[in-house]
Design a protein that fits this description.
This protein is α/β, with parallel strands linked by helices and about 170 residues long. The chain has helices at about 10-20, 30-40, 45-55, 60-65, 80-95, 100-105, 115-125, 145-150, 155-165, and strands at about 5-10, 45, 70-75, 125-130, 155. Strands 3-2-1-4-5 form a five-stranded parallel beta sheet. It is globular and about 50 Å long. The relative contact order is 0.18.
């Protein structure tokens, strides 16, 4: 029997939820569900997403540093993730479609996008992001474009919740 899929969450999943439709004061059940799913090993995020979230200095920052802290996996010492990351960066720089500034931004150490896909590729996880596939984009390298190039599945928050049978009763 195969292992259930693990979902790896992009920073925009947390940020959009906290600032818009699942704000902490409106939908605490969403945040409790994330903790429950993380405890069950169904969702995770990565250290570089945590770095992005903790630069915000708001309620989400406190939640990321506190309650969700242990569910940000390290990318630093993981050989498979590092190998996948190198492949993704090489792929990005070989693409004529993207502007040089987009390639440089994508490859910056503090940009979690390439790392999210690398983690998913190495761990056979599903990326959760609100970014959309954009076949003609030049100024940015969207996560879904990278996912498609490497055969990595991706969904948005709502599809993840459906696939995990999460209900807010």
């Amino acid at each position: 029997m195969s292992q259930p899929h693990v979902f790896v969450l992009d920073a925009n999943v947390f940020i959009e939820a906290a600032r818009r439709y699942y704000a902490f004061d409106i939908a605490p059940a969403f945040w409790n569900a994330l903790l429950d799913l993380a405890q069950k090993g169904r969702i995770v995020s990565i250290d570089r997403v945590k770095d992005e979230l903790t630069r915000l200095n708001d309620e989400l920052t406190e939640w990321a540093r506190g309650q969700f802290h242990e569910y940000f996996d390290s990318t630093v010492d993981d050989r498979e993730v590092m190998k996948a990351y190198r492949q993704i960066i090489q792929w990005a720089f070989e693409q004529r479609q993207f502007e040089e500034t987009a390639k440089r931004e994508f490859a910056q150490a503090n940009n979690a996008d390439a790392w999210i896909v690398a983690y998913a590729l190495a761990k056979r996880a599903i990326v959760v992001t609100h970014e959309q596939f954009k076949p003609d984009i030049k100024r940015k390298i969207p996560i879904p474009n990278v996912c498609r190039a490497f055969g990595v599945s991706y969904v948005d928050t709502f599809e993840m919740l459906r696939q995990l049978s999460v209900r807010f009763d």
